[in-house]
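Q: Structure tokens for this one, please.
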Amino acid sequence: MRRNVGALTEKEYDLVIVGGGIFGICAAWDAVLRGLSVALVEQGDFAGATSANCFKMVHGGLRYLQHADFYRMRESNRELNSLLHNAPHLVSPLPIAIPTYGHGLQSKEVLRLALHLYDLITFDRNRGLNDPERRMPPPRVISRQECIALFPGVHREGLTGAVIFHDGHMYSPPRLGLSYLKSAVESGAVAANYVEAVDFVRRGGRVAGIQARDVLSGEVFDITGTIVLNTAGPWAEHLLKQRTGLHLRPPLSYSRDACFVVARPWIERYALAVQGRTRDPDAILHRGHRHLFIVPWREHTLIGVWHVVYTGLPGEFTVTETELRGFLDEINQAYPPLGLGLKDVALWHAGLVPFGDNESGAADLSYGKRSHLIDHAKAHGVEGLISVIGVRYTTARGVAERALNLVVRKLGKRTPKSVTATTPIYGGRIERFAALQQEAVDTRPPTLNPRVMQALVRNHGSAYKEVLQYLDDPRWAETLDTSLVLKAEVVHAVREEMAQKLADVVFRRTDLGTGGYPGATALVQCAEVMASELGWTANQVRGELDEVMRIFPSHTSLVNRQGQRTPLSLA
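A: Here is the predicted structure, written as tokens:
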């Protein structure tokens, strides 16, 4: 998968996709499998904004039971099943415990009934899943004593036990997006990151492509196509307003969803749902406050999610220290043994997703319920333009399928039906994931740590040997300092995965910085490998390191190659 901007202008495409988050990537994959010619551009890195910063949960739909939203339950269950089947290296079942209290709506009796109903509605949740480790176990109830043994710090007054159900969990959302993308490119899509859509091309009153700008070179050029699919996420509506004067009615509101990473494990095996401070105003059955989740992830802990209505420009939001302190106070109150402080926050993640209708300043917020699929011919009388603004990573494939059904109708082409629900993505052709991982460990080069191989298979699945081929060069056979990331992975990311910037590798192609600050030596080594591949100057290396360091909340300096401590420029 090579970055070839020139290829974007070589022909007129059936479909031009603006936005390389998970929704745009899934649309590109679906389109090429139906035989369409596709160009996909992303102004930053693929799956690098909201898609990369999600909470890594793949929702099976249980929480929608409170809203009696059976459509969303079935949709979520179907997409979770698809991910477990098609990406077994990157998605796995996650057991979640919800403590039960008293004999009201928070009781074991009520939740047992809810789980029984959920079990009936999602009766086919394991369809086609032959790997026992990827099958979703039935929900169950545990006793008070078992709950306390698992979670000693749980509030005990009125505690009667807990219910256990399973959702899905992503090992790496960006790598999942990249696997979809590599599937699309392998099947014929033309894609390029760091290419911004600056305007629409118009012919005879219809949209017939985009004017694009190569962010890295500054070159401006046209990409023409019969249909343009706008999947730019929170930028989609902004692009419409600025370049076509089109306004969505009513305009969408957005939530800045935030979570954070603690660089050590606090709980094992099970995620724990604890009650926060806000309520769901849309729930038909109120069980109290909304849940926050404490989730074991690799050797770290994920905690979230917090929501706030955001009305500014898509690229300008942040999470302030004051907000982080508020998050920490809330989670410490919900589960006191954590006792977390600012120093424990290794990384925070945040992204913008469509939200419900909320009054200004409201504490109890209404969530977005459905992704938005907009045919601008019907909505605004503009042919050749469709927009998709997605709500949940979980449902991206299914929403993309619906969007492509509309695209195909507009093209007037006879194409096969979508097969993305049952087609393994790049690296996903795996019969038994545990067996593949063990085989990789058993046959690894003797110099490699078994944990390095395990992580490599997690990220690349059945395609992990593509990285190992670089080990023939002794320069790439070592890990980056004491991390589990091989220098070979960095080379592979540049040569075969379109990595253009240090952040692309640190946060999206490898595990190096996804759990927190990996240390100065590892970052400098990673930058040096990329510099040798991309021809960076010393000043470019420094700029890339500065950019990456801004992501880590507790680090403001870096060790240079002479071993002297040098302050980072944060300007």
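A few notes: The mean pLDDT is 92. The two ends are 34 Å apart (CA to CA).
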